[in-house]
Structures are given as C-alpha cells and as structure tokens.
C-alpha cells in the first residue's frame, strides 16, 4: 500500500492550470466580450504567480491549508485586475467614436491621387 504525504498532495495539486482563463465569472467574460484577451491573460498569469508565491510563503506556518488560501489570494488579485481593466471599457459603451482626422474615402495631401 502506498502512503501519500501532504507534500505529495501539494506537489500534485499545484500543477493544475485551468484550460480557459475567462471561464467562471462575469468579469472575465465581460472583458472577453470586448475582444481584449491580452489583459485577461496578463491578469491570469499575475494571479497564478500570486497563488504560487502566497502558498509558498505561508506553507511553513499553516501547512496544507496554504494551498486553498494561496488560491483564494491569487483569484482575488486576478478578479481585481480584471475589474480594473474592464471598468474603462464599460464606461466607454455608448459613447460616440472620436472623429477621424481623415475620412476613409479621401486621399492624404500630396499623395498624387485626385
């Protein structure tokens, strides 16, 4: 019979990465709906870094409880970052586009086209 230790559980459980960083919450879905995936991936990796760092820092004192506490801290950071990224985009909904400097059908001055 194989005996599993707490270190084995922490090591095997910490290797799981979600398949999609925009699943599970309205905030990531809202940012994804505005076609902004770069900031979303950035928030995902920052949150994952917080999970690893927080779990590593508090593991010596709280033991195996560091895994869910670190995960909670990382997800909180990720949601706050996503909300900060989404806020200006939501405020811009319904605002008119700024006028273009050159209309799409006209040629710039000196281009030789009439």
Task: Give an overview in words.
- The protein has helices at 6-13, 26-33, 38-62, 66-91.
- By secondary structure, it is mainly alpha-helical.
- The protein has a domain at 25-90.
- It is elongated and about 65 Å long.
- The model has no long low-confidence stretch (mean pLDDT 75).
- Using DSSP, what is the number of strands? 0
Principal-axis shape equals elongated
Report the sheet-strand fraction.
under 5%
Broad structural category: mainly alpha
Radius of gyration: 23 Å
Mean pLDDT: 75
Low-pLDDT sequence parts: none
Order of helices and strands: HHHH
Biggest sheet architecture: none
Q: Percent range for helical residues?
A: 55-70%
* Tally of DSSP helical segments: 4
Distance between the termini: 85 Å
Outline of this structure?
The protein has 4 helices and no strands.
Main attributes?
elongated, mainly alpha, 4 helices, 114 residues, 59% helix
Blueprint of the fold:
Layout: H1 6-13, H2 26-33, H3 38-62, H4 66-91
